[in-house]
Design brief:
The structure is a homodimer of 425-residue chains.
Chain A: E1 2-5, H1 12-15, H2 27-40, H3 42-53, H4 64-70, H5 76-94, E2 103-106, E3 109-117, E4 120-124, H6 133-146, E5 150-155, H7 165-173, E6 178-181, H8 184-193, E7 203-205, H9 210-219, E8 225-226, E9 234-239, H10 245-256, E10 263-268, H11 271-284, H12 291-299, E11 302-305, H13 309-319, E12 323-327, E13 343-346, H14 352-357, E14 383-391, H15 393-409, H16 413-424
Chain lengths: 425, 425
């Protein structure tokens, strides 16, 4: 833990700096994987499953039988939980569907926007220790609301060539069209280029390790879009004297357990809360199954005592956290001051894990200070907003001179002519 | 012109292919320019002005005097035109400001989104033959509505070290905070890295040549966001027997005059309109000042006769044009079928130049088939949508079990603990 008491503002820029991770030079490897997938298709993917995931997979596509069997392997409690989370995520994301609003900008000139789904989207779900079926919910539910025709999912098989049943069950529940056993950069390559079984998509979503992140960057050269650039997960907690130190500690640790590179920052104006939160963290970490990982993350964490909540929000805006928790009863006043954050948790009962799973907001959020210029995933991420305009003859008459004068000033006479020829008629 | 009569669907994929432009290997040059700007700041920019733009510039910042003088150099007609265009762009983009909508997803759990401006944005306006003050309107007006604190603009100086007065006048009118004389990749580098006079920004907007495009791509490595990937401008016109061939020809030519790489596609179901539009293009091009450029663009243009309007829309969706014109009286029926397009112009009086300048819609649109996965610039491009959630104690009680069950199934016990510890209290 790094502990700072009333640091002067001059030092903040230093304090908000993320650790720079040595980016291994893997672009050559990524290019090779893309070439292999392009040339050999499914066969390449089966080979990579063996090589990287130690898995024998005869076919890449998950069978209907596998998907249907998954349901039996989940407890009723888990199925009910997934359903409630899905309902909330649905409600919140469905509310992001705008009414069409026609605006008459000049008499006879009407403009509006309409949403159209991105027709083909791909979801990547990493393997590893935690089967992230919650991320399936966060990506497939809005894709479904948007009306994406093809929603495919790639995830690496385990050593038995199987996919975690919670992932399969959730994918089916949320309308994923096809599921494939392939992971890492090769999964991204397959969704970018297409193979015999895996269809090409227009946009790729989902988290992953440095290979997946690099492959998503690389995929953009082929015209594919991606959800957002990635970095390690983060939380910043702002607490005043109304905060409960044990709650704060639990939130900080739930971030820290994500991985040893997780970013954890605690800001408070209250000395008692400051000291007690530090103690509570030290206490609670002992009982965690992932305490080694959390411990490593805590080494880089910052606990900072500040003079005022205004200062704390200012610091937070400079840092631009993925998750921001306002651990206090009276948070209303500080909402308008928040400028840069991915998702904000208000009050002592809004823990980050609520948003990670089930409050309804999306947990795919900008990290690494990208909250300054990117939004988290929402319904918008799965649609294009197309603009429409209709000019009546009268409308063009009302706007014609303006267009002609501007076109002429820009030296674009054919632009002017498109108006003149119509007004002459 | 390439002319096709009733091509079978199998051939469409070939027909919608954009020409692949040899991408010169310029990434080394871009890296050098970034390094030079990083090391020498303004001095580097002054050097580049001399080297690339043959301009002597003592200082990079445009002075207040230069800005104020610009007004005198514009005709009243042009000032009035710019004002009407600005008003329309303002009306349409201001209507994109959503009401905050609080959604109670579970009793006691309330979620919503709020827009926050991207604090610092940079606009690039190319130099060259056409002074694109219309692009200043398209980018600065929504930036202003969004509430971006710092809106800076970079544009190359002419040989006298001056900036076109229409650009200066429009920038001032639209609330641009600072204007700088620098162009090309070095302008993008300066906005990415900052110099003595030019502040660093979080997002860079605006068109440009291949060096600007490559520099914008490169800038993303520094955490800067960009408006969208770029390609040559395009129009696709769908006409039925209600279309006016001369109007269609004028629209096709107003696209063609943009540059020799412009993409122009004409689809119709009517043989008479087909033949007459081709004749009208050949006729009208003679009178154009930029006819050489337009002529080159037309060499690659496609004129295609199809069986039905449904087929034409299907073809258009496959191509995903930046601009789509429905040249007909009865267009309503085809709107829901449009899946991929940047901006759509409806009816015989909605010429593309209306949207280029003054209807109110944005002219910064996805090209090169990016209309399949990207939207054009809108108010959304200048904001982040931050999610907020508030759980009351009751709210967490209602959601607690779900979060705990899901966290446990993902093996994230600290996430579970953040709930348990609160519910125990």
């Amino acid at each position: 833990m790094k502990i700072y008491r009333y640091p002067v503002k001059d030092t903040w820029t230093e304090l908000v700096k993320r650790p720079v991770f040595e980016r291994e030079e893997i672009s050559g490897l990524i290019a090779e994987i893309f070439a292999e997938v392009e040339n050999k298709g499914d066969k390449a993917l089966i080979g990579f499953n063996k090589k990287f995931d130690k898995a024998e997979t005869k076919s890449i596509a998950v069978t209907e039988e596998e998907i249907n069997n998954a349901e039996n392997e989940l407890s009723n409690d888990l199925k009910k939980a997934i359903q409630q989370a899905k309902d909330n995520i649905f409600k919140f994301h469905d509310s992001q569907n705008p009414e069409i609003q026609k605006i008459e900008t000049t008499k006879g000139v009407v403009c509006w926007r309409e949403n159209r789904a991105i027709e083909k989207v791909g979801i990547y779900i990493p393997g590893g220790t935690a089967p992230l079926f919650s991320t399936v919910l966060m990506l497939a539910v809005p894709a479904n609301i948007a009306g994406c025709e093809e929603i495919i999912l790639c995830t690496p098989p385990d050593k038995n060539g199987a996919v975690n049943p919670a992932i399969l069950y959730t994918a089916k529940l949320c309308g994923v069209s096809k599921i494939f056993k392939t992971g890492g950069a090769q999964a991204v390559a397959a969704m970018t280029l297409g193979t015999e079984s895996i269809p090409q998509v227009y946009k790729i979503f989902g988290p992953g390790n440095q290979f997946v992140v690099a492959a998503k960057e690389y995929a953009q050269r082929y015209g594919v879009a991606i959800d957002m650039p990635a970095g390690p997960s983060e939380v910043l907690v702002i607490a005043n004297e109304q905060a409960v130190p044990e709650f704060c500690a639990a939130d900080l640790l739930s971030q820290a357990e994500h991985g040893s590179d997780s970013q954890v920052i605690f800001l408070t104006t209250d000395l008692k809360v400051f000291n007690e939160t530090i103690s509570a963290v030290e206490q609670q970490i002992k009982d965690l199954s992932r305490n080694e990982m959390a411990g490593k993350a805590l080494e880089n964490s910052c606990f900072i005592l500040l003079n005022s909540l205004e200062e704390a929000v200012e610091f937070s805006n400079l840092y631009a956290p993925e998750h921001l928790i306002l651990a206090m009863d009276e948070f209303e006043k500080y909402i308008p001051m928040i400028q840069n954050a991915g998702s904000v948790f208000l009050g002592n009962y809004s823990c980050e894990s609520a948003g990670d799973y089930a409050s309804g907001t999306n947990h795919t959020l900008p990290t690494n200070a990208y909250a300054k210029n990117y939004s988290g995933v929402s319904l918008d991420s799965f649609v294009k907003k197309i603009t429409f305009q209709h000019l009546s003859k009268r409308g063009l008459q009302n706007l014609g001179k303006t267009i002609k004068v501007m076109a002429e000033a820009e030296g674009l006479l054919a632009h002017k002519n498109a108006v003149s020829i119509r007004l002459k008629k």
